Amino acid sequence: MTKLYAGVAVGAVSAFLGASAYYIWSVQGDDAFAKCRSGQVAGGDIGGPFTLVNTDGQQVTDAEVLAKPALVYFGYTFCPDVCPMDMARNVEAVDILEERGFDVTPVFITIDPERDTSEVLAEYAQNLHPKLVALTGSLDQVKAASMAYKTFFQKQPSEDEFYLVDHTTMTYLMLPGTGFADFYRREVMADQMAEQVACFLTATEDVM
């Protein structure tokens, strides 16, 4: 009798594992980008409509900004350390991708519109990268964009204009016609990011 129960248990576990494996395979089989993803993507839909202001002071929408593959980052120009390092990594990845024949737009959305005016961002973009799209807007516009991407930011208390802003430090890969594809944490290096983004873009070409 004990052997019978053991056999039934082994059979049940085997069936469960087999069903799980089939489920994972079938889900990945429907995902043209499964091999490209850096990890599990969770948290619901990321990205969505926004209206912001570019460095010329003009209102632009997500449809205009994300017409090509883009690496989207939320930060601010007065950030003392994290943002400069992340954005330097992002534009380096863009350059690596360009050498490989891929056209990717680096996008910087400020979460500090009080100080990051269109004029400030124009100088910032000019100094960082010729392809950089830097965006600001009203606080409500910035909050709406931040919520769409499920990012967080909060201004720290300060008695002067030299305040800091706590914020999410993810970089988001957005693809035309697909939307959100993946995100990259701070520890991902430029060459790693470029390799993973290239995988997505190659997979997109294969599907088309």
Cα distance spanning the termini? 58 Å
Write down how many β-strands occur, each being a DSSP E stretch of 2 or more residues.
Answer: 9
Q: Mean pLDDT, nearest integer? A: 85
CATH superfamily: Glutaredoxin
Cα gyration radius (Å): 21 Å
Classified by CATH, the class is Alpha Beta
Sheet with the most strands: spatial strand order: 5-4-3-8-9
Walkthrough of the structure:
It is a single chain. This protein is 43% helix and 18% strand. The chain starts with a helix and ends with a helix. A hairpin with a 3-residue loop joins strand 8 and strand 9. Helix 3 crosses helix 6. The chain is built from 6 helices and 9 strands. It has one domain: Glutaredoxin, CATH 3.40.30. The longest helix has 28 residues. It is an alpha/beta fold and 208 residues long.
Distinctive features:
two-stranded antiparallel ribbon; 208 residues; single chain; disordered N terminus; 9 strands; alpha/beta; five-stranded mixed β-sheet; Glutaredoxin; 6 helices
Task: Please render the helix and strand layout as text.
Layout: H1 2-29, E1 51-53, E2 59-61, H2 62-65, E3 70-75, H3 82-99, E4 105-110, H4 118-128, E5 133-135, H5 139-148, E6 153-155, E7 165-167, E8 171-175, E9 179-184, H6 190-207
Parallel strand pairs: 3-4, 4-5
Antiparallel strand pairs: 1-2, 3-8, 6-7, 8-9
Helix pairs in contact: 3-6
